[in-house]
Amino acid sequence: MTANPAPVADWVTIPDLYRDPFPIYDRLRAEGGVHWVPQVGRYLITSYDAVHATEFDQETFSANEEGSLQIRAMGHSMLRRDDPEHYAERAAWQPVLRPGVVKRTWRAVFERNADRYIDELVERGPDADLIWDFAAPFAAENLREILGFHNVHQTDLQRWSQTLIDATGNYADDPAVWELGRRSFDEVDLALDEMLTWHVKHPDHSLISSLLAMPGDRMPIEKIRANIKMTIGGGLNEPRDALGVAAWALLSHPDQRRAVEEDPALWSAVFEESLRWIAPIGLYSRQTTRDVELSGVLLPAGAKLGICILSANRDESVWDDADRFDIRREVKPHLAFSKGVHVCLGAWVARSQVADIGLPRLFGRLRGLDLVADRPAQVGGWVFRGMLKLPVQWSSDSGAAGVGAAADGAAAPTAGSTETATPSTPARVAIVGAGPAGCFTAQALRRAAPDAQIDVFDALPVPYGLLRYGVASDHQGTKSVARQFDRLFDPEHTRFHGNVRLGADVTLERLRESFDAVVLATGLHSDVRLAVPGSELPGIVGAGALTRAANGHPDEAGTPHLGENVVVVGHGNVAMDVVRLLSRDPQDYDGSDIDDDVLREIAGDVRTVHVVGRSLPSAARFDPVMVRELAGLAGVRHVVHGADLDTVPAGKDARLDAVRELTSSGDGDGHRERVTVEWWFGLSPVRIEGDAAAEAVVFASPDGEVRLAADSVVTAVGFAADPESPLEPAAHASGRVEPGLYTAGWLRRGPRGTIPDQRADARGLAAMILEDLAAHTSAEDRPARREWERLAPAVDADGWRRVDLQERLAAVPGRERRKLRSREELLAAARDESIALPPRDDGPAAARGFGVPVTVAFASESGGAELVTDDLRRVLEPTTDVRVLDLGEARPDDLDPARLHLVVSSTYGDGEVPTAARPFHAALRSGAHRLDGLRYAVFGMGDRSYTKTYSRGSELLDEALAACGAERVGEYGRHDAGSGADPVEAAQEWLDGIGEVVGADVAVAAGADATRSV
Ligand SMILES: Cc1cc2nc3c(=O)[nH]c(=O)nc-3n(C[C@H](O)[C@H](O)[C@H](O)COP(=O)(O)OP(=O)(O)OC[C@H]3O[C@@H](n4cnc5c(N)ncnc54)[C@H](O)[C@@H]3O)c2cc1C
Ligand code: HEM
Ligand SMILES: Cc1cc2nc3c(=O)[nH]c(=O)nc-3n(C[C@H](O)[C@H](O)[C@H](O)COP(=O)(O)O)c2cc1C
User: Fold this and answer.
1) Burial of 371 (0-12, 13-18, 19+ CB in 10 A)
2) How far, CA to CA in Å, does 185 sit from each of 67, 165, 281?
3) Which residue of 162, 475, 717, 839 is 20 to 30 Å from 632, comparing CA positions?
4) pLDDT tens-digit map of 712-770
């Protein structure tokens, strides 16, 4: 493609941009996204892809702009430098703004300030303005304390911030604006000089103290001055505006306000969606260092650019209906905090003060908070955009003590909260749907209320939903989550009733009469159809139906035969599963539970797979690890179309890197090429052509139509509820439909989350259910629980165990099991009492003693490590003082050198510590903690098929503990989820080894004591 000169947008004016930039940006994006705008004197970069490209290439798009007004107004800060100078300054700023420090130090400050300024807002009374009477002083006082300016008032910070920013934007060269800016510049320097002396004698947690603690040459005083001014300019107005816009958005969208008041976990979605919708920093500048092509437009060397975040965040090629404020929309990476090397350092401070504290406290306290009809809110700005006015009223103030309670007084506990109210009589809970969501909810209820009586129903004779019938056969590591669930069912507390369909075999009313609480976790199984002409033709199959068939689902009667040429529409993870199914070498399924006959029928003839998505790689829906797995398949050639791989350098965008890996894969792997996978980006389906069956799919691209011939088409564009579902999907985001009726899993959230997400959600939901039950006394005249034992067509947990055993015994060599494929076969096996079941695996019997107190500390994503931890606790409990610590909620200070720590950790992401435990890991690595004298042993859980990162998460924890001075004892234990070995058994073997080492130490120590006492 040859680059063209930039189109000129002479119709754009600054007053119009200030009033409402969005229609202007819509047009600029539609016309290519890169324009020369004479009135602004800059090239405006407006499309998501173009903005994104500039953020990752500082060598071409420099932040160090010639003649920068910001440098004149505030001095030369990190924001106007490129690496390596920028990096050194940024590193000096970082320690005070890290998430762990925010949690430990600043959170309490934000809480205090929120209460104080809500008090002042209330005092202000009927003519109060939410921005100027709350958001601004709240953000200013928070920043004052973080910086450590103990000699000034928050109103000084507000004045400095505004005048420094006005000077930065003084393109009109107004002398009065320069004068005000200069005055603030001098005032900041004066106050800073005073505080530098003070902090030497009174070090505290503030930024100024932290800078003083660094070696003098690291941050010379001139750099401190410039960066402090920049932080005053950027650290106050943005959280103020984020809070104001979020409040305005909620007050104007009552349904979304209700949802968040019911489910406080949604505050974070409110915050992120507000930033996407109206980015507080609407535009920042960059300058090109060479001639460069951007989105087909030539930018000459030295070109001054305006990077329009407000516009990129509304790009309709990334977000559907992008102008709508919608906290339930699919999460995609917005650019409000920027990306690349200048990504905002204060993001965690902002999240904490706005999403965790400011907004929840405001809405929790001020009952009936509302807009004022005759004093409308006003929003403005384009370089910075936010609320100019936000007059509000309210009916009553519930006071600081009432905070935390949701609007109806029943606070929904957030995920991970450990204090759970339990009802006085054992709770009776029915869960409909034995997929991951249903099973994790049952598990969480049992953990929080061990007496609870739980009945889990499923329409199929066998449990586990998509874990059994969706997750790919060659991902046995993921499927091994089922082991946890097998342990869940016991006749007394948690019973399974398979083959019972809600609607057909039992009604919701009947369940509600019989149980204190009913949870609907029935998932979403209908494939969404493509909304284009021809989508009804034969030869088109949904990815859900296809993966069910491949997994031996009893209701997928026929097995589709896809022919030679297949078009897969969609770029999500399910589409990636489909591409793997169609292209992986049939010889390469060792250890899986694939049915080879079914695989041959589906994929035996496939030679070409076209996999087509709307977005460019950086905004595609797949996880990079899924694409890398495809890149590693033998005998597969990959061809990539329409991915602009050169705009962003390697190492900056994981999705692009994964797609690059495709283009370099397959060279010389020595395998015969069996299948070609053609990857298409940026194409939207227009129609499907064919007479009696689908013959081709036609797509629209910026360069015209693309027609791909197809023997069959697989659509992987989402899932919808089954027609008979009593609830709308994603209509009750909090999980509570009303007290007594709840929803979980994909039915609750829509078809997005992973299995670990179901586990994370289940904890919060279980706590909410128990809290509701504690508040509402249970009806006493419920039918006896025994009634449910006589439910005619049901299959119980032993029935499932018979199926499981029979399937495993029927496995051919190299396969984990051979699934029974029809309901009749499943029911026959479940009821075949001649199948002798081994005794139930209730966990370890033998108790072991250690002679020292032990803490089992776990880090888990989908619960495997927690299950192992439970077992280790049970083994040790009879003889040893044992405690359990969830590293997802722990801090390094929680580790007690007087106790031996058994660390059990899995690995996620791409060789990372499980998500929840990352703050703990980061805190260890911060260097702020010494753990001398602490002894620990490590059991790593991973999957050897991740060859480069096997068990890496546990190793990262090990390395971080050792770096803090702790000492590892005994052998390193490992479990490979793909090996088929039971993790609990592997952990017990490891524990024996540790026991021997520690036992010997204890004996030596006892001996030494004995010698001393003589
Ligand atoms: C093809 C595919 C592959 C996936 N692969 C992965 C992966 O590798 N890793 C990962 O983390 N996530 C994966 N996921 C996502 C994961 O499967 C979901 O996060 C999870 O299964 C959602 O759990 P759920 O319990 O809400 O739904 P489901 O797993 O669908 O469970 C719902 C259960 O309800 C039952 N049911 C439905 N209607 C009724 C009724 N009327 N009466 C009684 N019972 C009923 C169903 O039989 C089913 O057992 C995949 C999803 C798909 C579609
Ligand atoms: C919602 C609130 C906030 C938003 C939307 C926001 C946005 C941004 C953006 C877009 C940038 C990059 C600008 C550029 O590259 O030119 C940035 C950088 C920065 N922000 Fe924020 N910010 C917010 C809050 C804060 C807070 C509270 C602080 C400090 C306490 C802070 C400190 C910084 C710093 C120091 C940088 C410079 C980083 C660097 O150059 O490496 N920000 N912010
Ligand atoms: C998305 C995903 C990513 C994973 N990444 C890795 C990895 O990089 N290295 C590894 O050894 N195991 C990896 N695993 C395997 C898990 O660590 C393993 O299944 C473990 O038993 C899960 O334990 P948990 O349930 O406690 O999280 C991954 C699993 C999944 C589903």
Assistant:
1) middle
2) 18, 11, 21
3) 717
4) 999 999 999 888 899 999 888 889 999 999 999 999 999 988 998 898 889 889 989 99
**Whether 804 contacts 498, CB under 8 Å:** no
Closest CA to 606 of 569, 631, 572, 581: 581
- Is the C-beta atom of 860 inside 6 A of ligand 3? yes
User: By mean pLDDT, which of 41-50, 319-328, 977-986 is the weakest?
Assistant: 977-986
CA 678 to chain CA mean position, Å: 29
Going by C-alpha positions, the residue among 346, 305, 289, 303 that lies closest to residue 51 is 305
Distance in Å from the first CA to the final CA of the chain: 90
126: helix, coil or strand? helix
Distance of CA 144 to the CA centre of its chain: 31
Q: State the pLDDT confidence band at 1003, using cuts at 50, 70 and 90.
A: very low
pLDDT(711) > 90: yes
C-beta of 942 in contact with ligand 3 (< 6 A):
yes
Q: For residue 310, give the amino acid letter.
A: L
From ligand 1's centre to the CA of 457, what distance in Å? 14
Among 480, 754, 946, name the best residue to mutate to test ligand 3's pocket (greatest count of ligand atoms within 8 A of Cβ).
946
Cα 914 to ligand 3 centroid, rounded to whole Å: 8
Tens digit of each residue's pLDDT (9 = 90 or more) over 457-506 = 999 999 999 999 999 999 888 888 888 898 889 888 899 999 999 998 88
Ligand 1, residues at Cβ distance < 6 Å: 432-438, 457-460, 465-466, 470-471, 475, 478, 501-503, 521-523, 544, 547, 574, 577, 722, 745-746, 753-755, 758
Ligand 1 center from residue 471 Cα (angstroms):
9
